[in-house]
Amino acid sequence: MDRRFFGIGEPLIQRQRDQGIDAAAYLDLVKGLGCNAFRSWMHLTEILKDPSTPDQKAVEEHTRLLDRAKELDIEVTGMSHEWFLPEGCIQRTGHAMPKRSLREGSLYMQALLMLEESWYTMARTFPQVSIWEVGNEWNLNAFLHPDGFLDTDMSEPFTADEKIDIAVDMMYFAAKGIRRAGTGAKIASFSPALSTPGLGGDMPDYLPVMYGVAWTFDKVYSRIRSGEFWSDDPDDYFDIAAWHPYVFTNREVNSDAELFLNVDEPDSLWRSFNDAAYKVMKKYGDGHKQVILTETGFTDLGNPELEEKYARFNKKLLEIASELPYVRTLHNFRLLNENAMLKRAGIEDNQIGGLTEVYFGIFTDPEDGCRPRKRAFAIQEMTGAEADLEMLGRITLTKSLHRRGFQTPQSGKQTSKMHKLFRDSSLGTVKKMQYLYVTQEGKTCRNIL
Protein backbone atom coordinates (compact mmCIF):
# COMPACT_ATOMS: atom_id res chain seq x y z
CA MET A 1 0.00 0.00 0.00
CA ASP A 2 1.36 3.42 -1.00
CA ARG A 3 2.07 5.85 1.85
CA ARG A 4 -0.29 8.25 0.09
CA PHE A 5 -3.08 5.67 -0.04
CA PHE A 6 -5.40 7.39 2.44
CA GLY A 7 -6.81 10.67 1.15
CA ILE A 8 -9.63 13.16 1.70
CA GLY A 9 -11.36 15.55 -0.69
CA GLU A 10 -13.07 18.83 0.21
CA PRO A 11 -13.42 22.28 -1.45
CA LEU A 12 -11.92 24.02 1.60
CA ILE A 13 -11.22 27.35 -0.09
CA GLN A 14 -14.84 27.52 -1.23
CA ARG A 15 -15.91 26.75 2.35
CA GLN A 16 -13.60 29.52 3.57
CA ARG A 17 -15.24 32.00 1.22
CA ASP A 18 -18.78 30.86 2.03
CA GLN A 19 -18.52 30.26 5.77
CA GLY A 20 -15.48 32.18 6.94
CA ILE A 21 -13.59 29.09 8.12
CA ASP A 22 -9.80 29.00 8.07
CA ALA A 23 -9.21 26.51 5.26
CA ALA A 24 -5.59 25.76 6.15
CA ALA A 25 -6.52 24.94 9.75
CA TYR A 26 -8.90 22.23 8.57
CA LEU A 27 -6.01 20.27 7.08
CA ASP A 28 -5.26 19.32 10.70
CA LEU A 29 -8.41 17.17 10.53
CA VAL A 30 -7.08 15.43 7.42
CA LYS A 31 -3.79 14.69 9.15
CA GLY A 32 -5.53 13.68 12.36
CA LEU A 33 -7.43 11.04 10.45
CA GLY A 34 -4.09 9.65 9.30
CA CYS A 35 -4.47 10.75 5.69
CA ASN A 36 -1.43 11.92 3.74
CA ALA A 37 -3.20 13.04 0.57
CA PHE A 38 -5.75 15.77 -0.12
CA ARG A 39 -7.83 16.57 -3.19
CA SER A 40 -8.39 20.32 -3.46
CA TRP A 41 -10.93 22.10 -5.67
CA MET A 42 -8.84 24.61 -7.67
CA HIS A 43 -11.07 25.82 -10.48
CA LEU A 44 -9.28 27.70 -13.23
CA THR A 45 -11.97 30.35 -13.38
CA GLU A 46 -11.87 31.05 -9.64
CA ILE A 47 -8.09 31.45 -9.44
CA LEU A 48 -7.32 33.12 -12.76
CA LYS A 49 -8.76 36.36 -14.10
CA ASP A 50 -8.09 35.08 -17.60
CA PRO A 51 -5.94 32.23 -18.95
CA SER A 52 -2.70 34.19 -18.43
CA THR A 53 -3.44 36.27 -15.32
CA PRO A 54 -3.69 34.92 -11.77
CA ASP A 55 -5.98 36.64 -9.28
CA GLN A 56 -3.59 37.57 -6.50
CA LYS A 57 -6.10 37.23 -3.66
CA ALA A 58 -7.12 33.76 -4.83
CA VAL A 59 -3.48 32.76 -5.25
CA GLU A 60 -2.75 33.84 -1.67
CA GLU A 61 -5.70 31.81 -0.34
CA HIS A 62 -4.61 28.64 -2.09
CA THR A 63 -0.93 29.19 -1.34
CA ARG A 64 -1.64 29.32 2.38
CA LEU A 65 -3.52 26.03 2.13
CA LEU A 66 -0.76 24.43 0.06
CA ASP A 67 1.96 25.65 2.41
CA ARG A 68 0.14 24.13 5.37
CA ALA A 69 -0.23 20.87 3.45
CA LYS A 70 3.52 20.82 2.88
CA GLU A 71 4.16 21.39 6.60
CA LEU A 72 1.95 18.38 7.37
CA ASP A 73 3.47 16.23 4.60
CA ILE A 74 0.13 16.02 2.80
CA GLU A 75 0.31 15.55 -0.96
CA VAL A 76 -2.18 17.73 -2.85
CA THR A 77 -4.05 16.84 -6.01
CA GLY A 78 -5.48 20.01 -7.53
CA MET A 79 -8.70 19.57 -9.51
CA SER A 80 -10.58 21.94 -11.79
CA HIS A 81 -13.74 21.26 -13.75
CA GLU A 82 -14.40 24.83 -14.96
CA TRP A 83 -12.62 26.73 -17.74
CA PHE A 84 -12.67 29.83 -19.93
CA LEU A 85 -14.44 30.22 -23.25
CA PRO A 86 -13.52 32.71 -25.99
CA GLU A 87 -15.33 35.82 -27.13
CA GLY A 88 -18.08 34.77 -29.48
CA CYS A 89 -19.39 32.05 -27.17
CA ILE A 90 -22.62 32.48 -25.23
CA GLN A 91 -20.80 31.67 -21.99
CA ARG A 92 -17.39 32.95 -20.96
CA THR A 93 -16.77 30.33 -18.24
CA GLY A 94 -18.30 27.09 -17.03
CA HIS A 95 -18.56 23.42 -17.95
CA ALA A 96 -19.41 24.15 -21.58
CA MET A 97 -17.66 23.82 -24.94
CA PRO A 98 -18.52 25.09 -28.43
CA LYS A 99 -19.40 22.55 -31.09
CA ARG A 100 -16.32 20.47 -31.91
CA SER A 101 -14.49 21.88 -34.94
CA LEU A 102 -10.77 21.37 -35.51
CA ARG A 103 -10.64 24.14 -38.06
CA GLU A 104 -7.92 26.66 -37.21
CA GLY A 105 -9.43 29.72 -35.53
CA SER A 106 -12.76 28.06 -34.70
CA LEU A 107 -14.33 28.84 -31.33
CA TYR A 108 -13.60 25.26 -30.34
CA MET A 109 -9.88 25.51 -31.13
CA GLN A 110 -9.72 28.88 -29.39
CA ALA A 111 -11.23 27.24 -26.29
CA LEU A 112 -8.64 24.45 -26.38
CA LEU A 113 -5.77 26.91 -26.68
CA MET A 114 -7.20 28.92 -23.79
CA LEU A 115 -7.37 25.71 -21.78
CA GLU A 116 -3.71 24.95 -22.48
CA GLU A 117 -2.68 28.45 -21.44
CA SER A 118 -4.82 28.31 -18.29
CA TRP A 119 -3.22 25.06 -17.14
CA TYR A 120 0.25 26.43 -17.92
CA THR A 121 -0.50 29.45 -15.73
CA MET A 122 -1.93 27.30 -12.93
CA ALA A 123 0.97 24.84 -12.86
CA ARG A 124 3.53 27.65 -12.96
CA THR A 125 1.70 29.53 -10.18
CA PHE A 126 1.41 26.51 -7.87
CA PRO A 127 4.57 24.37 -8.12
CA GLN A 128 3.60 22.91 -4.72
CA VAL A 129 0.86 20.83 -6.37
CA SER A 130 2.10 17.30 -7.03
CA ILE A 131 -0.80 16.10 -9.21
CA TRP A 132 -3.25 17.97 -11.41
CA GLU A 133 -6.61 16.32 -12.11
CA VAL A 134 -7.69 18.07 -15.31
CA GLY A 135 -11.41 17.31 -15.30
CA ASN A 136 -14.31 15.81 -13.42
CA GLU A 137 -17.07 13.52 -14.69
CA TRP A 138 -16.89 14.66 -18.31
CA ASN A 139 -18.91 11.60 -19.26
CA LEU A 140 -21.94 13.29 -17.64
CA ASN A 141 -24.03 16.11 -19.10
CA ALA A 142 -23.76 18.21 -15.93
CA PHE A 143 -20.00 18.60 -16.29
CA LEU A 144 -19.64 18.79 -20.07
CA HIS A 145 -22.33 20.31 -22.25
CA PRO A 146 -22.77 22.64 -25.24
CA ASP A 147 -22.13 26.35 -24.94
CA GLY A 148 -25.35 28.01 -23.78
CA PHE A 149 -26.92 24.71 -22.79
CA LEU A 150 -28.01 25.97 -19.36
CA ASP A 151 -30.01 28.78 -20.94
CA THR A 152 -32.09 26.33 -22.99
CA ASP A 153 -34.56 23.62 -22.06
CA MET A 154 -31.49 21.30 -21.90
CA SER A 155 -33.04 18.84 -24.33
CA GLU A 156 -30.02 18.72 -26.67
CA PRO A 157 -26.87 17.80 -24.73
CA PHE A 158 -23.76 16.41 -26.32
CA THR A 159 -24.13 12.73 -27.15
CA ALA A 160 -22.07 10.28 -25.12
CA ASP A 161 -19.57 9.94 -27.99
CA GLU A 162 -19.35 13.70 -28.52
CA LYS A 163 -18.46 14.14 -24.85
CA ILE A 164 -15.65 11.59 -25.12
CA ASP A 165 -14.25 13.20 -28.29
CA ILE A 166 -14.16 16.54 -26.50
CA ALA A 167 -12.75 15.05 -23.28
CA VAL A 168 -9.82 13.50 -25.18
CA ASP A 169 -9.08 16.86 -26.82
CA MET A 170 -9.27 18.69 -23.51
CA MET A 171 -6.98 16.23 -21.71
CA TYR A 172 -4.35 16.61 -24.43
CA PHE A 173 -4.31 20.41 -24.32
CA ALA A 174 -4.46 20.51 -20.51
CA ALA A 175 -1.49 18.13 -20.30
CA LYS A 176 0.40 20.21 -22.84
CA GLY A 177 0.03 23.31 -20.69
CA ILE A 178 1.05 21.57 -17.47
CA ARG A 179 4.13 20.00 -19.08
CA ARG A 180 5.16 23.38 -20.50
CA ALA A 181 5.25 24.82 -16.97
CA GLY A 182 8.09 22.41 -16.16
CA THR A 183 7.26 21.83 -12.50
CA GLY A 184 7.35 18.03 -12.73
CA ALA A 185 3.74 17.70 -11.59
CA LYS A 186 1.94 14.53 -12.62
CA ILE A 187 -1.24 14.70 -14.67
CA ALA A 188 -4.32 12.69 -13.75
CA SER A 189 -6.99 11.95 -16.33
CA PHE A 190 -10.44 13.40 -15.96
CA SER A 191 -12.40 11.26 -13.49
CA PRO A 192 -15.34 9.42 -15.03
CA ALA A 193 -18.19 8.26 -12.85
CA LEU A 194 -21.25 6.11 -13.27
CA SER A 195 -23.09 5.88 -16.56
CA THR A 196 -26.87 6.18 -16.87
CA PRO A 197 -28.90 7.40 -19.86
CA GLY A 198 -30.48 10.11 -17.71
CA LEU A 199 -27.08 11.56 -16.87
CA GLY A 200 -25.76 11.40 -20.41
CA GLY A 201 -24.20 7.95 -20.69
CA ASP A 202 -24.85 5.28 -23.30
CA MET A 203 -23.86 2.10 -21.47
CA PRO A 204 -26.61 -0.55 -21.66
CA ASP A 205 -28.92 -0.11 -18.70
CA TYR A 206 -28.89 -3.81 -17.86
CA LEU A 207 -25.34 -3.39 -16.49
CA PRO A 208 -24.61 -2.03 -12.99
CA VAL A 209 -24.05 1.71 -13.33
CA MET A 210 -20.47 1.70 -12.03
CA TYR A 211 -19.25 -0.35 -14.98
CA GLY A 212 -19.67 3.00 -16.70
CA VAL A 213 -16.12 3.85 -15.61
CA ALA A 214 -14.63 0.96 -17.61
CA TRP A 215 -17.06 1.69 -20.44
CA THR A 216 -15.86 5.31 -20.57
CA PHE A 217 -12.17 4.46 -20.38
CA ASP A 218 -12.50 2.01 -23.24
CA LYS A 219 -13.92 4.83 -25.37
CA VAL A 220 -11.12 7.17 -24.28
CA TYR A 221 -8.32 4.73 -25.00
CA SER A 222 -9.77 3.59 -28.31
CA ARG A 223 -9.73 7.19 -29.52
CA ILE A 224 -6.18 7.81 -28.35
CA ARG A 225 -4.85 4.62 -29.91
CA SER A 226 -6.77 5.21 -33.16
CA GLY A 227 -4.22 7.72 -34.41
CA GLU A 228 -7.06 10.08 -35.33
CA PHE A 229 -6.53 12.45 -32.40
CA TRP A 230 -3.54 14.53 -31.28
CA SER A 231 -1.27 11.64 -30.31
CA ASP A 232 -1.63 7.89 -30.12
CA ASP A 233 0.42 7.75 -26.89
CA PRO A 234 -1.67 7.85 -23.68
CA ASP A 235 1.33 9.45 -21.91
CA ASP A 236 0.63 12.63 -23.86
CA TYR A 237 -2.78 12.83 -22.18
CA PHE A 238 -2.19 11.68 -18.58
CA ASP A 239 0.32 10.00 -16.26
CA ILE A 240 -2.19 8.62 -13.78
CA ALA A 241 -5.69 7.26 -14.36
CA ALA A 242 -8.44 8.58 -12.12
CA TRP A 243 -12.06 7.66 -11.49
CA HIS A 244 -14.90 7.94 -8.95
CA PRO A 245 -15.74 4.48 -7.55
CA TYR A 246 -18.85 5.30 -5.51
CA VAL A 247 -20.94 2.49 -4.10
CA PHE A 248 -24.37 2.65 -5.71
CA THR A 249 -27.49 0.64 -5.15
CA ASN A 250 -28.39 -2.03 -7.69
CA ARG A 251 -32.09 -1.70 -6.88
CA GLU A 252 -34.64 0.07 -9.03
CA VAL A 253 -34.62 3.81 -8.34
CA ASN A 254 -36.86 6.72 -9.26
CA SER A 255 -34.10 9.31 -9.49
CA ASP A 256 -30.34 9.35 -9.92
CA ALA A 257 -29.93 10.78 -6.40
CA GLU A 258 -31.45 7.57 -5.01
CA LEU A 259 -28.49 5.61 -6.38
CA PHE A 260 -26.60 6.71 -3.24
CA LEU A 261 -29.27 5.30 -0.91
CA ASN A 262 -29.92 1.77 0.30
CA VAL A 263 -26.52 0.62 -0.88
CA ASP A 264 -25.13 -2.80 -0.06
CA GLU A 265 -21.86 -3.49 1.71
CA PRO A 266 -18.90 -3.24 -0.69
CA ASP A 267 -17.91 -6.70 -1.87
CA SER A 268 -16.53 -8.51 -4.88
CA LEU A 269 -18.84 -6.51 -7.17
CA TRP A 270 -17.28 -3.22 -6.07
CA ARG A 271 -13.86 -4.73 -6.64
CA SER A 272 -15.03 -5.91 -10.07
CA PHE A 273 -16.04 -2.34 -11.06
CA ASN A 274 -12.50 -1.16 -10.40
CA ASP A 275 -10.78 -4.22 -11.86
CA ALA A 276 -12.79 -3.77 -15.07
CA ALA A 277 -11.47 -0.23 -15.51
CA TYR A 278 -7.92 -1.36 -14.83
CA LYS A 279 -8.29 -4.22 -17.32
CA VAL A 280 -9.16 -1.58 -19.93
CA MET A 281 -5.90 0.20 -19.10
CA LYS A 282 -3.97 -3.06 -19.57
CA LYS A 283 -5.81 -3.79 -22.81
CA TYR A 284 -4.38 -0.59 -24.29
CA GLY A 285 -0.87 -1.03 -22.87
CA ASP A 286 -1.26 1.27 -19.87
CA GLY A 287 -1.26 -1.34 -17.11
CA HIS A 288 1.95 0.10 -15.62
CA LYS A 289 0.20 3.32 -14.59
CA GLN A 290 -1.12 3.99 -11.11
CA VAL A 291 -4.72 4.85 -10.31
CA ILE A 292 -6.21 7.48 -8.03
CA LEU A 293 -9.74 6.80 -6.80
CA THR A 294 -10.65 10.46 -6.70
CA GLU A 295 -14.01 10.37 -4.94
CA THR A 296 -15.90 7.77 -2.99
CA GLY A 297 -18.04 7.98 0.10
CA PHE A 298 -21.41 7.42 1.70
CA THR A 299 -24.33 9.70 2.53
CA ASP A 300 -26.57 8.87 5.48
CA LEU A 301 -29.09 11.76 5.26
CA GLY A 302 -28.39 12.46 8.93
CA ASN A 303 -29.88 9.11 9.98
CA PRO A 304 -27.89 7.69 12.97
CA GLU A 305 -28.54 4.08 11.99
CA LEU A 306 -27.32 4.68 8.45
CA GLU A 307 -24.34 6.61 9.80
CA GLU A 308 -23.33 3.57 11.86
CA LYS A 309 -23.86 1.17 8.97
CA TYR A 310 -22.01 3.25 6.42
CA ALA A 311 -19.04 3.65 8.76
CA ARG A 312 -18.68 -0.13 8.60
CA PHE A 313 -19.10 -0.02 4.84
CA ASN A 314 -16.43 2.68 4.53
CA LYS A 315 -13.96 0.52 6.44
CA LYS A 316 -14.77 -2.49 4.26
CA LEU A 317 -14.32 -0.40 1.12
CA LEU A 318 -10.89 0.76 2.31
CA GLU A 319 -9.91 -2.83 3.09
CA ILE A 320 -10.82 -3.97 -0.43
CA ALA A 321 -9.16 -0.97 -2.09
CA SER A 322 -5.96 -1.53 -0.13
CA GLU A 323 -5.69 -4.94 -1.82
CA LEU A 324 -5.84 -3.47 -5.34
CA PRO A 325 -2.19 -3.23 -6.42
CA TYR A 326 -2.83 -0.53 -9.01
CA VAL A 327 -4.46 1.93 -6.57
CA ARG A 328 -2.12 4.65 -5.37
CA THR A 329 -4.57 6.87 -3.46
CA LEU A 330 -8.22 6.76 -2.43
CA HIS A 331 -9.83 10.11 -1.63
CA ASN A 332 -12.76 9.84 0.75
CA PHE A 333 -15.48 12.36 -0.07
CA ARG A 334 -15.84 14.57 1.90
CA LEU A 335 -14.24 16.13 4.97
CA LEU A 336 -17.27 18.12 6.19
CA ASN A 337 -21.04 18.03 5.98
CA GLU A 338 -22.38 21.15 4.24
CA ASN A 339 -25.40 22.61 6.00
CA ALA A 340 -25.51 25.60 3.66
CA MET A 341 -27.15 23.33 1.09
CA LEU A 342 -30.11 22.92 3.43
CA LYS A 343 -30.71 26.68 3.30
CA ARG A 344 -31.05 26.82 -0.46
CA ALA A 345 -34.59 27.03 -1.68
CA GLY A 346 -35.69 23.93 -3.54
CA ILE A 347 -32.69 21.84 -2.58
CA GLU A 348 -33.83 18.83 -4.60
CA ASP A 349 -33.88 20.94 -7.78
CA ASN A 350 -31.00 23.28 -7.07
CA GLN A 351 -28.31 21.04 -5.64
CA ILE A 352 -26.51 18.16 -7.33
CA GLY A 353 -27.72 15.02 -5.60
CA GLY A 354 -30.29 16.99 -3.62
CA LEU A 355 -30.45 16.24 0.09
CA THR A 356 -28.06 13.30 -0.29
CA GLU A 357 -25.19 15.68 -1.04
CA VAL A 358 -25.33 17.33 2.40
CA TYR A 359 -24.40 14.30 4.48
CA PHE A 360 -21.22 12.86 2.94
CA GLY A 361 -19.12 14.54 5.64
CA ILE A 362 -16.62 12.74 7.83
CA PHE A 363 -16.97 15.61 10.33
CA THR A 364 -20.09 17.67 10.99
CA ASP A 365 -20.44 21.12 9.50
CA PRO A 366 -18.55 23.81 11.46
CA GLU A 367 -21.98 25.19 12.42
CA ASP A 368 -22.56 21.91 14.26
CA GLY A 369 -19.26 21.95 16.09
CA CYS A 370 -17.03 20.12 13.61
CA ARG A 371 -17.54 16.85 15.46
CA PRO A 372 -16.17 13.56 14.11
CA ARG A 373 -18.83 11.30 12.69
CA LYS A 374 -18.73 7.50 12.73
CA ARG A 375 -16.89 7.30 9.41
CA ALA A 376 -14.07 9.40 10.89
CA PHE A 377 -13.33 6.74 13.48
CA ALA A 378 -13.59 3.97 10.86
CA ILE A 379 -11.02 5.72 8.67
CA GLN A 380 -8.73 6.41 11.61
CA GLU A 381 -8.93 2.76 12.63
CA MET A 382 -7.67 1.83 9.16
CA THR A 383 -4.83 4.39 9.15
CA GLY A 384 -3.70 3.71 12.70
CA ALA A 385 -3.51 7.43 13.55
CA GLU A 386 -3.82 8.38 17.22
CA ALA A 387 -5.15 11.95 17.17
CA ASP A 388 -8.01 12.83 19.51
CA LEU A 389 -10.60 13.60 16.85
CA GLU A 390 -13.15 15.13 19.23
CA MET A 391 -10.59 17.57 20.60
CA LEU A 392 -9.10 18.18 17.18
CA GLY A 393 -12.48 19.16 15.79
CA ARG A 394 -13.13 21.61 18.64
CA ILE A 395 -9.73 23.25 18.38
CA THR A 396 -9.88 23.48 14.59
CA LEU A 397 -13.22 25.24 14.95
CA THR A 398 -11.82 27.59 17.59
CA LYS A 399 -8.91 28.54 15.36
CA SER A 400 -11.45 29.57 12.72
CA LEU A 401 -13.51 31.87 14.96
CA HIS A 402 -11.94 35.01 13.58
CA ARG A 403 -13.12 34.00 10.11
CA ARG A 404 -16.73 33.33 11.08
CA GLY A 405 -19.40 34.22 8.58
CA PHE A 406 -21.51 31.15 7.95
CA GLN A 407 -23.16 32.81 4.99
CA THR A 408 -25.41 30.87 2.70
CA PRO A 409 -24.07 30.91 -0.86
CA GLN A 410 -26.39 32.41 -3.40
CA SER A 411 -27.25 30.09 -6.29
CA GLY A 412 -27.08 31.86 -9.61
CA LYS A 413 -29.31 30.99 -12.55
CA GLN A 414 -26.74 28.84 -14.31
CA THR A 415 -25.72 27.01 -11.13
CA SER A 416 -29.34 26.28 -10.34
CA LYS A 417 -30.07 24.90 -13.80
CA MET A 418 -26.89 22.83 -13.87
CA HIS A 419 -27.89 21.21 -10.60
CA LYS A 420 -31.19 20.14 -12.11
CA LEU A 421 -29.25 17.75 -14.26
CA PHE A 422 -28.90 15.62 -11.13
CA ARG A 423 -31.81 15.41 -9.47
CA ASP A 424 -25.35 29.63 13.99
CA SER A 425 -24.66 28.27 16.79
CA SER A 426 -23.66 30.86 19.44
CA LEU A 427 -20.05 30.41 20.55
CA GLY A 428 -18.88 32.09 23.76
CA THR A 429 -15.83 34.31 24.01
CA VAL A 430 -12.65 32.29 24.10
CA LYS A 431 -10.37 33.68 26.81
CA LYS A 432 -7.72 30.98 26.52
CA MET A 433 -7.15 29.05 23.33
CA GLN A 434 -5.79 25.56 23.47
CA TYR A 435 -3.84 25.38 20.27
CA LEU A 436 -3.69 21.84 19.00
CA TYR A 437 -1.44 20.91 16.13
CA VAL A 438 -0.84 17.69 14.27
CA THR A 439 2.61 16.27 13.67
CA GLN A 440 3.66 14.59 10.43
CA GLU A 441 3.11 11.28 12.22
CA GLY A 442 -0.55 12.15 12.84
CA LYS A 443 -0.22 12.68 16.61
CA THR A 444 -1.77 15.62 18.44
CA CYS A 445 0.09 18.08 20.66
CA ARG A 446 -1.34 20.94 22.71
CA ASN A 447 -0.07 24.39 23.62
CA ILE A 448 -1.88 27.09 25.61
CA LEU A 449 -1.90 30.53 24.02
Features:
449 residues; 16 strands; 13% strand; alpha/beta; TIM Barrel; disordered C terminus; two-stranded antiparallel ribbon; eight-stranded parallel beta sheet; 13 helices
TL;DR of this structure?
The chain has 13 helices and 16 strands.
Q: Write down how many β-strands occur, each being a DSSP E stretch of 2 or more residues.
A: 16
User: How many independent structural domains?
Assistant: 1
How much strand?
Answer: 5-15%
Helix and strand string, N-terminal first?
EHHEHEEHEEEEHEEHEHEHEHEHHHHEE
What Rg do the Cα atoms give?
21 Å
Distance between the termini: 39 Å
Structural class: alpha/beta
Low-confidence parts, pLDDT < 50 over ≥5 residues? 405-439, 444-449
* Reported CATH architecture: Alpha-Beta Barrel
**Overall average pLDDT:** 89
Largest sheet: 8 strands, parallel
Strand order of the largest sheet: 11-9-5-2-1-14-13-12
The quaternary organization reads as: single chain
CATH class: Alpha Beta
Shape: globular
Helix content: 25-40%
CATH fold field value: TIM Barrel
CATH level 4 superfamily:
Glycosidases
Given the structure, what is the number of helices?
A: 13
